[in-house]
Amino acid sequence: MIATAPEPVETEKRLFLSDEEVKGFVSEGFHVSHELLSEEEIEELRSDAPKLIRGEYVKADSELELRGDESDEELLAQVLCMHQPHFFSPIVEKYVKHPKICSILSQITGAHLPYWDGSVKCMQSMYFIKPSGYPGQAWHQDEIYIPTRDRSLIGAWIALDDAVIENGCLWVLPKSHRDGVLYEQKAHGQPGEFDFAEESYGFDDAVEVPVEVKKGSVVFFNGYLLHRSKKNLSEGYRRVLVSHYMTTSSLLPWGQTQGEAVAKYDKRSIMVVSGNDPYAYKETTRPDSFYFRGTGM
């Protein structure tokens, strides 16, 4: 049974998706909201990247050594991805909690669950710079890295540049989330095309489709959906802020330490972006630092 779209909780009152669009997300595993954010909003996010790299909010944990007098362009050319910036940058946090994005999340994150109330939490953000000539990521499912209990993991992928085949846009396998199967992984053997992460295998990828979008568009995709991106062959960047969310009622056994029961473990480094947290009585934690990967890493 597919639940009808619930009323958004503690977000804008307007519903951004129709019931048919919600059902389409449940069926296909992804949805594109074209040009959801304005030019001004995109520029605000773009301008925040050099501040993060320079450590204007907090010193980053990175092997990259900066001189301190680099131009914005020189900085961006050295960074592939920044991890968890929403805990330190008020600008990134603003877009993790963006009312339009959260209204959509409150409709689709747990739309496959009949009694879901629209409550959503965020546990991860990643700011990809992806300069010219740098690799993408091989086939994978985000649920492998961030496990949920109710198959509600969802990515909200904000395009900060036009994302096209040439500069390494997303490619997806529609409907590949339906069975809830996590595929095995192995070394991909294509270091020029993809980064160090392993590649999922054991499925037919003949029906993959590119998700080409204009900047300001947001691609929402289920955590079980198989997806990948390829090398940036353009002369510019393919910048993206992608954040991951799940229902607040699902515990997050991510980063479990030895001796803790996986059935009860809940990583509390989260932000509630819609509705209520049934585990609010637990202490919510924040990381002390964030790190970024340089283009040579």
CATH architecture: Sandwich
Question: H/E order of the elements?
Answer: HEHHEHHEEEEEEEEEEE
The beta-strand count equals 13
Shape: globular
- Tally of distinct domains: 1
Q: What's the mean pLDDT score?
A: 90
Write the layout of secondary structure elements.
Layout: H1 19-28, E1 30-33, H2 39-54, H3 72-76, E2 79-83, H4 90-96, H5 99-108, E3 120-128, E4 154-159, E5 170-172, E6 185-186, E7 199-200, E8 209-211, E9 218-222, E10 227-229, E11 240-247, E12 271-274, E13 291-294
Task: Describe this entry's structure for a reader.
With 297 residues, the protein is α+β, with helices and mostly antiparallel strands. It has a single domain (19-57, 72-282), classed as q2cbj1_9rhob like domain (Jelly Rolls, Sandwich), CATH 2.60.120. 16% of the residues lie in helices and 20% in strands. The protein contains 5 helices and 13 strands. The protein has helices at residues 19-28, 39-54, 72-76, 90-96, 99-108; strands at residues 30-33, 79-83, 120-128, 154-159, 170-172, 185-186, 199-200, 209-211, 218-222, 227-229, 240-247, 271-274, 291-294. The strands form 3 sheets. Strands 1, 2, 3, 4, 9, 11, 12 and 13 form an 8-stranded antiparallel beta sheet that branches. Strands 8-5-10 form a 3-stranded antiparallel beta sheet, with no helix packed on it. The chain is globular, with a radius of gyration of 18 Å. The N and C termini lie far apart (45 Å).
